[in-house]
Amino acid sequence: MAEAPLQQAPRLQKALAEMGHGSRRQIEQWIADGRVSVNGEPARLGQRVEPGDAVALDGKPLSGHRPATSRVLVLNKLEGLVCTRRDPEGRRTVFDNLPRLRQGRWITVGRLDIATSGLLVLTNDGALAHRMMHPSTGLDREYAVRAYGRLDDAWMQRLIDGVVIDGERYAFTDLRYYDGSGRNHWYHVALMDGKNRAVRKLFERAGLTVSRLKRVRFGPIVLPATLSRGRFTELGRADLKALYGLLKLPATLPSGQHRRDTKASLLVPYPELERLS
């Protein structure tokens, strides 16, 4: 199997927004006003940040929000929902029916476009969200894809080797034919980054149109088959401990017995994960 392409570190405004420090537009204004620094130097719009970089706002260090108790939700997103907190067009968002938090706010771990359904991970821990999304962490995403038409072996290999689209390199780390007949054919694909419309663009390059796209896994977190469309469930204490261990983050777990201890696991074996039990 071909090696995954190297991924660039995220831009500063995107990283801080994903950690829950504010909207991207608000953070861009802070940077333009000279209020943000990286490693002691004034930040620049579009600057990329790596894990370990010291970011400060008005001289005060910024880091991922660390709640008293970490929570992670798994939502089976419906098509037609947007992943923004407020939509200027008045469309429904994934935040509309989430449980309320006493402190902090829900942060999406990556996004799904309005036409894509399936697994969306949300957390109240900005550091966890940032670590899961950062390219250096190496978590892949898996999707079930229905397309009009069938890829031949040459195109399947080409999409794994990688193609350049609009000046950027796109590639699947895994691509498997699943089933189908007539015009409709199902595939399972995996890729290492969350570029906008990456799956659709790769199939379009091969001359196929994606008619349905559903995310089924993000790193070790899977979408349970029993979770109805539009509903959410929550990671239990054992899963939280394993996930934080895999990502090498200090866990902020519920103390003692907790109702989430009894939930079925939503994690699958992943590199190093089995050694954490």
Helix- and strand-based class? alpha+beta
CATH topology of the largest domain: Pseudouridine synthase
CATH architecture of the largest domain: 2-Layer Sandwich
Order of helices and strands: HHEEEEEEEHEHEEEEHEEEH
The residue ranges in which pLDDT falls below 50 over 5 or more consecutive positions are: 1-6
Total number of helices: 6
Shape: globular
CATH homologous superfamily label of the largest domain: Pseudouridine synthase
Helix proportion of residues, in percent? 10-25%
The biggest sheet, with number of strands, parallel, antiparallel or mixed sense and barrel status, is: 9 strands, mixed
The CATH class of the largest domain is: Alpha Beta
What is the domain tally?
A: 3
Our measurement of the CA-to-CA distance between the termini, rounded to an integer number of angstroms, reads 29 Å
Radius of gyration: 19 Å
Q: What would the average pLDDT be, to the nearest integer?
A: 87
Write the layout of secondary structure elements.
Elements: H1 12-18, H2 24-32, E1 36-38, E2 41-42, E3 55-57, E4 60-62, E5 72-77, E6 107-109, E7 117-123, H3 126-133, E8 141-148, H4 153-161, E9 163-165, E10 168-170, E11 174-181, E12 184-191, H5 198-205, E13 209-218, E14 221-222, E15 232-234, H6 237-246
Helix pairs in contact: 1-2
